[in-house]
Amino acid sequence: MKKCKLDLTLEAKPIHDECGVFGMYDFDHGDVASSIYYGLFALQHRGQESCGIAVSDTRGPKGNMLSYKGMGLVNEVFDNDRLSDLHGDIGVGHARYSTAGESIYANSQPLVLNYVKGTLALAHNGNLVNANELRARLSETGAIFQTTIDTETIAYLIARYRIHSASVEEAVSRTIDDIKGAYSIVIASPRKLIAARDPFGFKPLCIGRRDNTYVVSSESCALDTIGAEFIRDVLPGEIVTISPDAGIQSDTSHCLPEDKMGRCIFEYIYFSRPDSMIDGKSVYEARIRAGRYLAQDSPVEADLVVGVPESGNAAAMGYAMESGIPYGTAFYKNSYVGRTFIKPKQNARESSVRVKLNPIRSVVEGKRIIMIDDSIVRGTTSGQIVSMLKEAGAREVHVRISSPAFRYPCYFGIDVPARDQLIAYRRTEEDIRQLLGADSLGYLSLDRLSQMVDDLAICKGCFTGDYPVDPPEEDIRGKFDA
Amino acid sequence: MKKCKLDLTLEAKPIHDECGVFGMYDFDHGDVASSIYYGLFALQHRGQESCGIAVSDTRGPKGNMLSYKGMGLVNEVFDNDRLSDLHGDIGVGHARYSTAGESIYANSQPLVLNYVKGTLALAHNGNLVNANELRARLSETGAIFQTTIDTETIAYLIARYRIHSASVEEAVSRTIDDIKGAYSIVIASPRKLIAARDPFGFKPLCIGRRDNTYVVSSESCALDTIGAEFIRDVLPGEIVTISPDAGIQSDTSHCLPEDKMGRCIFEYIYFSRPDSMIDGKSVYEARIRAGRYLAQDSPVEADLVVGVPESGNAAAMGYAMESGIPYGTAFYKNSYVGRTFIKPKQNARESSVRVKLNPIRSVVEGKRIIMIDDSIVRGTTSGQIVSMLKEAGAREVHVRISSPAFRYPCYFGIDVPARDQLIAYRRTEEDIRQLLGADSLGYLSLDRLSQMVDDLAICKGCFTGDYPVDPPEEDIRGKFDA
Amino acid sequence: MKKCKLDLTLEAKPIHDECGVFGMYDFDHGDVASSIYYGLFALQHRGQESCGIAVSDTRGPKGNMLSYKGMGLVNEVFDNDRLSDLHGDIGVGHARYSTAGESIYANSQPLVLNYVKGTLALAHNGNLVNANELRARLSETGAIFQTTIDTETIAYLIARYRIHSASVEEAVSRTIDDIKGAYSIVIASPRKLIAARDPFGFKPLCIGRRDNTYVVSSESCALDTIGAEFIRDVLPGEIVTISPDAGIQSDTSHCLPEDKMGRCIFEYIYFSRPDSMIDGKSVYEARIRAGRYLAQDSPVEADLVVGVPESGNAAAMGYAMESGIPYGTAFYKNSYVGRTFIKPKQNARESSVRVKLNPIRSVVEGKRIIMIDDSIVRGTTSGQIVSMLKEAGAREVHVRISSPAFRYPCYFGIDVPARDQLIAYRRTEEDIRQLLGADSLGYLSLDRLSQMVDDLAICKGCFTGDYPVDPPEEDIRGKFDA
Amino acid sequence: MKKCKLDLTLEAKPIHDECGVFGMYDFDHGDVASSIYYGLFALQHRGQESCGIAVSDTRGPKGNMLSYKGMGLVNEVFDNDRLSDLHGDIGVGHARYSTAGESIYANSQPLVLNYVKGTLALAHNGNLVNANELRARLSETGAIFQTTIDTETIAYLIARYRIHSASVEEAVSRTIDDIKGAYSIVIASPRKLIAARDPFGFKPLCIGRRDNTYVVSSESCALDTIGAEFIRDVLPGEIVTISPDAGIQSDTSHCLPEDKMGRCIFEYIYFSRPDSMIDGKSVYEARIRAGRYLAQDSPVEADLVVGVPESGNAAAMGYAMESGIPYGTAFYKNSYVGRTFIKPKQNARESSVRVKLNPIRSVVEGKRIIMIDDSIVRGTTSGQIVSMLKEAGAREVHVRISSPAFRYPCYFGIDVPARDQLIAYRRTEEDIRQLLGADSLGYLSLDRLSQMVDDLAICKGCFTGDYPVDPPEEDIRGKFDA
């Protein structure tokens, strides 16, 4: 049996989401920065590279946005002094992940700017597919770009449309006519909090309330953290404008029929917190269901069901519930790996994977194990985990994956390796099983994927290559299809 | 029903162990600092306040110990430059927890010193009960103390006994005649690595090997991390001397009969990593068993068994296995709380406990829940977690604790609140149940405690007030018995 | 005699320049970042709040500018790793001073941006008087501003004019038609290094060369530091374009006749380094001359001439040379005050001024002292220094100032206190003398000011209120004329 | 003419003093930490590697010393929070310089310890010549050493003698019987502030007072800074005990006759601040005198006298006064070099010396220059400065040194290069002149050295090899006499 020989990093999962956004408006004019801090803390799993908060006082002059941004986790960037300097009753926050090359201060969010009508602060989660085109168009009429984030492009469009629009929300609406792709945006204007979600609903966004304070958040879990009540999801394509004058105003003119939508299924499979609800579906329940489906569709005799922590655990519980095979923990995961952790050298005797994940021999020894993970990307980590289980004495290791085989690039905000590095690229399931060294392998089927979320319309592009929106041409020919 | 009103901190568990120790000796003279780093990383859960590594070259001059220590986690204190400066084939490392007042640089370990025979580096886990007495005695003959840690007292005794001893291990042996309490010590002398464990075996300590390199570690999990093979535990009371001349030499003259020993049962219940083996028993299995015993002794009809993460999860799985009731996850635990995290203010709207732990409503709603935790100390967190479950819609919450009621102080290295702050202090189980707001409450019985570890001799002092060694008099009258 | 009661900060001089700029282009394609670092180090006295370096490779793609910026001194912001990451043969650097409110990361320079023709990096020293007007005009056509620095306004204009210009230098030329005020700019475009100085020559700017590398610098001293040879000053109003194709190209279409120019005389009096030459005049010699003129115009019998360190020393030497009275040092100046220095509290017993400046009693005792300073702004420090000398036993203290009385605001880049805080505002020389507690007081006359620099055309606005360019209207009515 | 080829570092002077000490006792029980901070700030020139403050409350329990120490400058180590935590009415502070190998946290001072009578905090400036002997003796009776500083040895002796002494000052007195070498010590005991100076008076130490607060300081300048009045110097050999009961008590039993003393003349020549008085002599005046003597003994026709900044300036002024040749500034010295400054690489085009020191061409050109420096150690910097002056156009450069030729090691606290690296080692004055490339060279004579300080008894060991105390044998044979 061929063994997996690929590199392994300490990062268990080589796919990443891009951001968490959070906005607040206290109609009673209390400071919102501190609650935004806790909101971002609850969204930290969506981005750990940089974060920022921008606030302004809706009763003050229109050009007075205060902000602080920095590289690192929310609890590293902000301290009490910095938070308490940020006086203001309206504000937005952002936690950011990015690919290595762009992980620089200039790209941190929110983007704060002065424009013809005062200040704006924007926070954005997603990825535009026509960004290059829009940048080129704007450049040709004199725009200068100080960052490489789509947020700046969106800001420019809003600023330009604002000149001949009656309101900032109208400018946002005209901007939405231009931009294509995935975006959940929160904007603090001098007097309004605005939230918009792309018509396909790629990224989640929801609205909450705490007394007289309105909240917009990437995920509902952040509402719980700050003690706010969930009101509803922002609809795909909806522009929500929150102000004391009009409360919550909704513009649904960009909304599509449900069957055209394309929610990112990976939000349910992996990105979002299990305690979040997205578009009415529980993330945790979706994962439990995926496990149950696997037990129905790929059953196998075994002694124990285990999850690859943390992301495989819920599906493993679902599998255990459905199959009646006991659920157990096969690994200890060391959670102290920080940004400055020194990776073991290639030739060192320390096992790279064991630094982070160590099998519990007494659990594994002599057992037939069903090992559940949410996805296989490069397959290197999965292969190493299978061997660790075998070395720890597992008699059999049956791998079950709570999503279909990952075969295509994502253009809408998931950072994925080049296509030829995907283990499922031009390989059969049997090839993959051998590469992993597993005794059997089962993926979730495409049909089950939709069932996980009660047939909500989802984007399955990374499994099928069919996307709700056309991807940019250059990328298809260039980077991905070697 | 009376509700719990006490303070809640972000620290889920108000009891703490004191340290992890790690030692290495490469007979082939390779540098050991890098492997000690990974060893400490695997022991990080035993102490997060400060850490340090000291190494020396056994072929160099006897006074040449290199060391680096700092406040914070292993990955914060060390970087590549610092590690690669630490050349030496013998060394010890330490990860430290301490109570607030003593959390200062001067108290970080290993303690490195020059004495009549060159250098020594000492790392210590535990607590002496006669430290004040020994310090007074040493002071009266001119000793000066630059720290407040027991390690310095031990070092002084070794230095003084070394004058008239034939070897450093003989000086260690005579020191052991003097010191009382809990101690697992690792010492690097100019040419020998020495490990000693107190006669009661309070704290774990084991020996491993990687090719020609010998390793001593608080827990076996750290051997896995660095790719070393487990050899055996250091016996309670044993002094092990490791050197190229004599290999592993054992002095068992201080060993007691098995029935006199007093291993800290909290190492199995809570402190140690589940993937460690201590004195032949798997920590994970002990926890699973505790859950099974609870299912047998305190059964209750319910829909789901959940653990309070992370420490209650294994016992919850054991309960699920035994009872046949499904195991699930009721909470999301936010793991991004760092040292600089800003705690919500008392009057803030952010829920202190929800910042760290958020119930998954879809799991909990309408269900009868068995909630397993490893212990209840003050009871504040447990009470809040019960209410969170109820607020999230749980129909019933049945609390089961995988240890007996915690009623007495610990003098051997566990940092516990003052006795009158313990929820079980002068309260019946029914009082406690009411205070928690639970529908039923069950503790593990004292008999089951011993069964968990196949009747190994253990210390049950914190449950019974009977200790293997007499505690210091002043403490009993003073701090604890209000 | 009335004593001076005003506040004293540790900052000896309450006026500040705004920046140092530095640019390099190595036609042999070596990396320039390291030399820019030393260049900025030599210009550090011009700005200590933030600094940055941007470089690009003229042979690489046009959108590939690498930059690093940070708050603090050059030696705090850059380390070896950061410098060596900055590969590129063309680049600009900047050291920045700013008033408190704007001392934020977003305002640090160089400004790096993408525009229709690739990337630009701009570094700017000076102050535009029509910035608000230009920003408003740009905003009305959709511009967004992410900083509050004039550099961004200049960048926008260049980007817009570039659309219909044949070259970047043509766009710079058209930009110069629009902007009014003080500016010395260095710009790195994908293939050219461009330097421009405003037509009045407010701020210095010069060109140097080291082998095949061209250098542009605020002051000539930075050329010495990096081993470059001084070529010439950039002319007031000149645009210099440096490229391998055309060498140094000069556009003098904006140049004014010499008598219209308005070099900032404070560059000679105080801001620039004494080892710099500006427009053919030695800064050190100008200061020596000022001292000589004072000796001629305001002679007094005395035992010793001393300077208020460091800025008064050269003029004091000039006074000593001319008068024959010996030159000495009356003060020790503590140079260890860093950014984090804790200022003595108002009610503390520590003398705020003595923390930084302590008189040498043995020098002063019983002597008649001529104390030379370059300027008096608020007068608080000067008054305290006079009293210190008296307390240390000086029989007489005769104050001589090597510039005229400072009475008006500066609109061209010097940060000055509000007008009613200037000691010379609405006070006679005799009033000021009394306020300082001096035995006599002498200022340099306006005529002598021009003689200092051989009658070069200079701006005397802060002494006379007559400026070479009209200041912005709102400022005159608002802030300064209480 | 042979040119100097040796390395040059940014550190202008390769000799260093070792420390500044400062102690305070407020009989009115106010906190002293803040004033100690300013005191250390005034002594920062004596040591920049680490610093610390220890305080205790004389009305509190005897074991309650609070301290904070750190690597770096006073203003880097302390912030407001740290200072305000240090409550106590008695305390000592220390600023430390050390040779590279020992620049570690463990060696920072004050040394704080518990001993039989409570706590002690010690701060020490100097070097013992019998430290190894004393350490060996103490080790043989069981002492352990956690640092490599003499302060620990002194502390041990005090602790041991205290057992059979009636008071701590008696223990200090018996300690002084044992230790040989240079030491100025300040000690805070639970109820007394003690200061002691070695019988030769190598290092300065003086006493001051501010209202009811007593102060002990290495130099008098620190008294000025905190607004205290100078009372007197501590006598060489004197032990001063300060307490509310007895005020200032003096024990002069170890004092020697004046002609046996050996004050370090380099305190006057270079180390101390010019605004300090040591043993009744002004440091500044001594330097002025040295310059005057040089003018008398080594006259030469020239146009300008300049000092090598900062240490040569005062002697240059003295030379100018005596000779009538004008005094000027020939160099700009960049004061922004911090700890993290990146030194130019050997092969870089940046001139290492010009980064720090740049000649002012307009001053130097065409002139005959007398260049005064306080000493020549390796001669590398001096040689480069001479060439810089010549390159800047000086017609002649006449070097005058305000001390005799430095030829022997110092055993009393000055860190000097190995003897064969001293330029004067086995070289004639003419050899040295050629090596420097100077047109003439003159040293101060040994006789003039004593005259500088009105024939106070001084140590001339580094010039003559004759020391007031015998140096340790091993050093003489080992390191220095190659």
Automatic annotation (TrEMBL), chains A, B, C, D:
What does the note under cofactor report?
Answer: Binds 1 [4Fe-4S] cluster per subunit. Binds 1 Mg(2+) ion per subunit.
- Xref: SUPFAM superfamilies: N-terminal nucleophile aminohydrolases (Ntn hydrolases) (SSF56235), PRTase-like (SSF53271)
Keyword Glycosyltransferase assigned: yes
Q: Where is the active site?
A: 19
Signal sequence region: none
Top-rank taxon? Bacteria
Q: Which InterPro entries match?
A: GATase_2_dom, Ntn_hydrolases_N, PRTase-like, PRTase_dom, PurF, PurF_N
According to the entry, every stretch annotated as the Glutamine amidotransferase type-2 domain falls at 19-245
> Which keywords does UniProt give here?
4Fe-4S, Glutamine amidotransferase, Glycosyltransferase, Iron, Iron-sulfur, Magnesium, Metal-binding, Purine biosynthesis, Transferase
Enzyme nomenclature, EC number = 2.4.2.14
Q: What does this protein do?
A: Catalyzes the formation of phosphoribosylamine from phosphoribosylpyrophosphate (PRPP) and glutamine.
Protein family membership: In the C-terminal section; belongs to the purine/pyrimidine phosphoribosyltransferase family.
Q: What is this protein called?
A: Amidophosphoribosyltransferase
